[in-house]
Recover the amino acids of this structure.
């Protein structure tokens, strides 16, 4: 039982510690990856720009498979800019497998603001992903509708690519969300897996909006295991 309590304590500590997307992502765009029921990933996402008018965004999150191709996530993000802003990020997605190479994903996020008393941001999306097995390339395209401090009312397009260079070790990734609104960007970078259960993503974020700043992101994802199996093992060890 102690292992289970430690796992839950880590998850709660990350959740309450420090807004980026909490789901599994290409970089900024939710991916078609989904965890099996009960499996957990802890993720720490950091976004920053070191130049004039610098800012830092820190977002720890917990991602858990909930069964039948669904996944839920919880994060608390802190942005340090002119002041400090703290937001929740609550996400859910459903992945439909169509054959061996095609997936269709739908999902959404709600991001209440804990410090400014503003209405929550909202984000709904749907996209298809296709794996080209010969080149190990996954292509993603779809649409989204989002609302800033209101119900979703702005639509745009989603595009993404995930190219395997060294299987289970290195991938080149990029994604793009259309519209010139603040927060939308072209993102490109690398996914590195130094260990079977650990993934590191580094990227540069080129904003669509001229008023936004070029930024960099670094995220670390750690696979924890299946919570139900951990509970079972602890019971057997009693």
């Amino acid at each position: 039982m102690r292992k289970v309590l430690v796992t839950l304590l880590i998850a709660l500590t990350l959740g309450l510690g420090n807004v980026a997307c909490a789901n599994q992502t290409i970089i900024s765009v939710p991916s078609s990856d989904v965890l099996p029921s009960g499996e957990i990933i802890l993720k720490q996402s950091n976004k920053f720009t070191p130049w004039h008018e610098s800012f830092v965004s820190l977002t720890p999150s917990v991602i858990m498979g909930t069964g039948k191709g669904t996944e839920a996530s919880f994060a608390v993000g802190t942005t340090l800019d002119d002041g400090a802003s703290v937001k929740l990020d609550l996400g859910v997605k459903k992945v439909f497998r169509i054959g061996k190479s095609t997936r269709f994903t739908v999902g959404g996020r709600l991001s209440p603001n804990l410090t400014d008393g503003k209405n929550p941001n909202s984000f709904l999306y749907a996209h298809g992903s296709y794996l080209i097995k010969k080149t190990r390339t996954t292509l993603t395209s779809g649409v989204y509708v989002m609302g800033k401090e209101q119900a979703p009312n702005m639509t745009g397009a989603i595009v993404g690519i995930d190219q395997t260079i060294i299987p289970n070790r290195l991938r080149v990734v990029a994604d793009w969300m259309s519209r010139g609104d603040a927060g939308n960007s072209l993102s490109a970078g690398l996914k590195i897996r130094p260990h079977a259960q650990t993934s590191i993503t580094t990227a540069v974020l080129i904003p669509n909006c001229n008023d936004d700043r070029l930024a960099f992101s670094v995220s670390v994802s750690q696979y924890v295991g299946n919570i139900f199996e951990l509970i079972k093992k602890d019971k057997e060890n009693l």
